Amino acid sequence: MSKRNYYDILGVAKGSSADEIKKTYRRLAMKFHPDRNPNNKEAESKFKEIQEAYAVLSDEKKRALYDQLGHDGFENAAKGGGGPGGFGGFNGFENVGDIFGDIFGDIFGGARGGDPRKRERAERGHDLITNIRIRLEEAVHGTESTIKVPQMVNCEECGGTGSRKGTKPVTCKTCGGSGQVYIQQGFFSIQQTCHACHGAGEVISDPCHKCHGKGQTQIQKTLSVKIPAGVDDGDRVRLTGEGNAGYRGAPSGDLYVQITVEPHKIFKREGLDLYCDVPVTFVGAALGEEYEIPTLEGKVKLKIPAETQSGKMLRLAGKGIKGMRGGHGNLFCRVVVETPINLSSEQKEVLHKFDELLSKDRKKHSPIAKGWFDAVKDFFGKLAG
User: Which domain range does residue 360 map to?
Assistant: First the structure.
């Protein structure tokens, strides 16, 4: 009697996507796993059937052949081992290990993706982070700076092994070199990192006198950092491989340089735009005047229109910051009309005469004041009513 169709076993349609098949397999594997169904022969048989079906349907080539030959034809080809349309050595379970480890790794503490001893022994070095302060001009145009970073490197004496020169680590007796130990808790067998060797599978019996068995020592490394033009406060620059050294020949980590842009005396930055205050005289604001103002690219002329009020914002297009990924900001200049101080008697007298001239038709010359006083009058009128 032939076995059930693999699609029927998983309960999926023939045209189902790989993701749909994977999700269904995960659900069924969790449901019928032997650790969840102890001494249940039916669940155990069902679990093996599910594994066999998924091993075929999760493999693109095997699934295509299965669809072409049908269930019986596929089984005959598999048993034939290299005949027409066949494939030698197939046992139906090659792909189950990877997906099974992916599903149950977090539950049972298992290591994903291969031998845990190799994974632990080749641990990538830790990333480092350091801060650097730069001026706004340096952030806009880019700069190069020198920094000093405390860094862990492989011990020169032992070459990073942690063992005294001429000796080698020995196999851990607690885990037998696997780097993992198993603890039975009820229905579950939980896999954990070995506490004796910390997952390395080996212990150092004769430690190096320089690094005391750690395999690494700390140095103060001097590095040159290129800050690209257009960076902003809080941005990071990554220096690949400049973090701590990896363990047992693994790659080093990376170094992240975090940018802090110092406050500027003239400009305030918001994204790619710059803002600044431009103090102008009373006469300049009233009659209009041209001022020479600074930008991060040099000096430019700013025309103050006649009758400009204090607080008016004037825009200089393209005079902001050029972005790292394109675009160019603007420079916004806020007009600040400055009231003259330390006036002489003669100057005060002239101002009084000027004020008398304005008083003849003040509403015409002071639109802001007129609007404010009208609003006040209306406000008190409502209170009185």
Answer: 345-384
> What are the φ and ψ backbone dihedral angles of 72, each rounded to 5 degrees?
-65, -45
What are the tens digits of pLDDT across the range 304-345?
999 999 999 999 999 999 888 788 899 999 999 999 999 999
Same domain, 12 and 103: yes
Same domain membership, residue 216 and residue 197: no
**139 and 54 both lie in a single domain:** no
37 and 10, same domain (yes or no):
yes
pLDDT of residue 291: 92
| Tokens linked to 262 | 């110092």
CA atoms within 13 A on the CB side of 90: 23
Contact 89, 77 (CB under 8 A): no
One-letter amino acid identity for 33? H
Q: What is the CA radius of gyration of the chain?
A: 38
CATH number at residue 81: 1.10.287.110
Maximum CA extent, the chain? 120
Same domain for 140 and 251:
yes
Give the burial class of 341: count Cβ atoms within 10 A of its Cβ; 0-12 exposed, 13-18 middle, 19 or more buried: exposed
Residue 4: per-residue pLDDT:
75
Please name which of 253, 248, 257, 244 lies closest in space to residue 218, comparing C-alpha atoms.
244
Listed in sequence order, the DSSP H helices in 81-126 are 96-108, 116-121
Higher pLDDT, 28 or 377: 28
If asked whether residues 125 and 254 sit together in one domain, one would say yes
Residue 152: closest CA among 128, 180, 117, 122: 128
Neighbours of 65 (CB within 10 A): 18
Who's near 266: CB < 8 A, 6+ residues apart?
276, 294
Which sign, positive or negative, has the C-alpha torsion 151, 157, 158, 163?
A: negative
Only one residue has tokens 């003669």, namely 346
For range 134-146, the mean pLDDT: 94
d(CA 170, CA 179): 13
